[in-house]
Amino acid sequence: LLTYAPMGGGPSSSSGSTSTSPGGIPSECYKQAREEFDSRYSTPATFQIAYRDFQIIRPLGRGAFGSVKEVKYIRDPIPDYLQRTNPTDSTITSARIALKIINKKSAYKMKQEEHVVNEKRILQALNFPFIIRFYFSFKDNANLYIGLELIEGGELFRHLRDSERFEEKKAKFYASQIVLALEYLHLLGIVYRDLKVFG
User: Fold this and answer.
1) Model confidence over 47-74: pLDDT tens digits?
2) Under a CB-based contact definition with an 8 Å cutoff, are residues 157 and 144 in contact?
3) Is it the case that residue 87 has pLDDT exceeding 60?
4) Cβ partners under 8 Å of residue 46, min gap 6
5) Contact assessment for residue 110 and residue 123, using Cβ atoms and an 8 Å cutoff
6) Cα–Cα nearest to 76, from 96, 56, 57, 91
7) Which domains does the chain have, with CATH numbers?
8) For the purposes of burial, counting CB atoms within 10 Å of the CB of 6, is it exposed (0-12), middle (13-18) or buried (19 or more)?
9) How far is CA 154 from the centre of its chain?
10) How far is C-alpha 99 from the geometric centre of its chain's CA atoms?
11) Which 3-state string (H, E, C) describes 75-109?
12) In which element (H, E) is residue 33 found?
């Protein structure tokens, strides 16, 4: 779960020197990231897209409020915001996406509708290499749909189980990505409360 608490301040640079965050992110990078996030969060984009525009490829998993499916966009022309999903593929319509389908009634019954909407807005506003990319969202009478980057490497737990233990080099590789992603979120005033090796 992602929780955003707008806050003032943050790393700042004094004249003649460049300050950094505790993890070493230069203050100018922080400032740029914060401005970009605030702009996207305060003015969420709208998308002219619908469930019928996709072909279902396969189920990817289930959650408390719904499911996640691999889908492919089947309309022509493809919207600009989907052209980013597969930049090396000249067949633009082959773009594959993880479509998160959240049932509105289930979220309402569990009193999580506000959290679901807030998480969608946060994902839309984030921009960091080690955080899954948001592409679009839309809704109908029954569900909220969120289109996300399709990651096919599997869960970290599966790799850990197969290896039994990670070599130090591999452990540092995974840990560094997690730490940098968490630092980016914390600098933006966001708390991620669901960190685990599953998922």
Assistant:
1) 889 999 999 999 999 888 899 999 999 8
2) no
3) no
4) none
5) no
6) 91
7) 51-148 (3.30.200.20)
8) exposed
9) 16
10) 12
11) CCCCCHHHCCCCCCCCCHHHCEEEEEEEEHHHHHH
12) helix 27-42
Distance CA 96, CA 88 (A): 13
Q: Which of 11-20, 24-33, 161-170 reaches the highest mean pLDDT? A: 161-170
Instruction: DSSP letter for 20, please.
Output: B
- Choose among 60, 156, 154: nearest CA to 100: 60
Q: Are strands 143-148 and 190-192 parallel, antiparallel or unpaired?
A: unpaired
Q: What span, in angstroms and rounded, lies between the C-alpha atoms of 191 and 66? A: 23
Instruction: Name residue 47's amino acid.
Output: F
Residues with catalytic annotation? 194
- Enumerate residues 6+ apart whose C-beta is below 8 A from 34: 10, 187, 188
